[in-house]
Amino acid sequence: MKAKFDDATIRNFQPASKVYDCLADKEPGFGIRIHPGGTMAFFFLYKLDGQKKFLNLGHYPVTSLKIARELYQAESAKVKALRRGSADGVDPVAKIKREKQQRIADTAAQAQQYTVAELATEYIEKHAKPNKRGWKEDERILGYDALQVWGKRKAADITKRDVVLLLERIVERGSPGSANNNFKIIRKMFTFAVERDILQQTPCTGVKMPAPLIRKDRYLDEKEIRAFWNNLEVCHVSGEVKRALKLILLTGQRPGEVIGMHTNEINGAWWTIPVERSKNKREHRVYLTATAQELIGELKVLDKKTNEMKPKGFIFPTPHTKKTQHIENTVPAQVIRRNLAVPVLVDGVPVFDKKGAPITENKLGVADFTPHDLRRTCATFMSKIGFMDEIIDAVLNHTKQGIIRTYNVNRYDKEIQAALKAWERKLLALTVGNDSSKVIPIGRKAAA
Q: Which residues of 121-149 are buried (b: 16+ CB within 10 A; e: fewer)?
């Protein structure tokens, strides 16, 4: 179909079940394509050497009729000049294709110059830092294995075989979980490279997870809780980290959220984790029991310069006095790993077994666990005490699922308080011998 092109006419075009075109009645080859969804795009249709060619001039109304007409006139003049054999003649579609091929060639040439170390730096700066709170863990994981082996190699030279061999090496040294974590970060880094046109393909395609995924169901039993709580006092750990680890177990909150606790988040017996620090981007209120408040300590400190009391700031500050920030989020996990296998020394010299492996001692007296397992321990024992899953989810700040997410906006403050008080009583009974018979969940009555 043909029509006189003006804005009123174009706005009145109605979408059909199939794509259709309308050509301008007095401008050869100038037209607009109407899609079933209602989007419209200007085009220039022309023929060279018997071959039809289609040039997209932009979507309407982002590209106005005036601009589209100017583009059509400019490109039409180039085609006419080409037909006359003029040096000014250009085939617009062929030019776009050549430019695209050149960009691909330039990208490939650029990729050949990227080392894996340079790619890792760009991934951390352009993706991990803006999008991941735990970006430093990505940086640590890449630096420990991938960059040690591939750092100076060209990113484009890394093959699927290289990835498989690296992961196998990590598994063979007895770290299947680390192999899985490495693969997740390496895969994301190379996918990032493809998305940014640094590489044309990722060497991770077709590579499977190197080790079976272990279901995360580890929690400390009563004996382990007692050992952890009491042995922590004799470990080589700073007071801040000891208190933070105990607070994770006591409150059931995420390790990173506990580590970043600040005095401006605490109001009396309630700690409010703000949206910007909450994993699920939801503000969360946590009741602070007497033991929790004792672990947090004083909220104000003496300013030696003014001799006045001022807010402490971060509850678990970094030991670096020149920095105003909290302890690194990775510190609790590092402290646990270190104290699960402390080298045995004789006269200050490490002792080795017959196979040459260092002899170590588990200072915590607990089988391998992580800070997150302390959170799971809290949840598990609240369930054993008798609290419903809905209340435990409220304590843990788990996102509600299904229709209840829309209609149930109850914050469960009273229930959270009751659950954390009950868990505190149970925990103190296990660790310092207080009478646990008074641990009564909400909705239950004490025995007569």
A: ebbbeebbeeeeeebebbbebbeebbbee
